[in-house]
């Protein structure tokens, strides 16, 4: 997309003492890891159990959208930065051009990563799995003709899908890099066969 400019900036809170820690499998930020999954899983559980717990559609919808909004903010601004050292946002300048801005934690002088493997797995597993569940819910609501629930499910897909898209772009770079990475991967798989 020609209207997207990509700019890499250093993470605003990168501490030197964090870069000195060794890369281990332990969870360094248990509160961030908990809230990374809490809002996501809570929204899914409320969606599944809502008709059993209450007959008020509005109360269920508001609860789910609040949980999804809290998840969007927490993942975009807090857990991504702490768990994998990435953060993204999109800003529009005065000319109307869209600029994607990505922050990444600087790599330590020894060349090692400063994020924990366990936290990275938790982050990416939650980031990828939950939007897929919301897509399944969307097809389920569509094919079972639950039109009122379709709006809630679409919000789940949009909010969690936006975070997934932003972090994938943050991790691999621009859309050109994403396309070339997919092409290279498929080419290597074809050559192995």
Automatic annotation (TrEMBL):
InterPro entries according to UniProt: TVP23-like
GO cellular component terms, semicolon-separated: Golgi membrane
Chief place where the protein resides: membrane
Transmembrane segments: 30-49, 55-75, 122-143, 149-168
A GO BP annotation: vesicle-mediated transport
Keywords, ordered alphabetically: Membrane, Transmembrane, Transmembrane helix
Topology relative to the membrane: Multi-pass membrane protein
Superkingdom of origin organism: Eukaryota
Location(s) in or outside the cell: Membrane
Protein family according to the UniProt entry: Belongs to the TVP23 family.
Name assigned to this protein: Golgi apparatus membrane protein TVP23 homolog
The gene coding this protein: Tvp23b
């Amino acid at each position: 997309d020609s209207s997207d400019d990509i700019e890499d900036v250093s993470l605003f809170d990168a501490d030197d003492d964090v870069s000195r820690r060794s890369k281990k499998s332990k969870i360094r930020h248990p509160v961030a890891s908990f809230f990374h999954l809490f809002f996501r899983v809570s929204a899914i559980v409320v969606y599944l159990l809502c008709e059993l717990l209450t007959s008020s559609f509005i109360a269920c919808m508001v609860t789910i959208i609040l949980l999804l909004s809290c998840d969007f903010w927490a993942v975009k601004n807090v857990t991504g930065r702490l768990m994998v050292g990435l953060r993204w946002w999109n800003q529009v300048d005065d000319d109307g051009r869209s600029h994607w801005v990505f922050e990444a934690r600087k790599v330590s002088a020894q060349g090692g990563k400063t994020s924990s493997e366990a936290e990275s797995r938790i982050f990416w597993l939650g980031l990828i799995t939950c939007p897929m569940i919301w897509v399944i819910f969307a097809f389920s609501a569509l094919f079972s003709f639950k039109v009122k629930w379709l709006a809630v499910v679409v919000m789940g897909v949009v909010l969690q899908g936006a975070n997934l898209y932003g972090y994938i772009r943050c991790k691999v770079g621009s859309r050109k890099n994403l396309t070339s990475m997919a092409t290279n991967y498929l080419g290597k798989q074809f050559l192995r066969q």
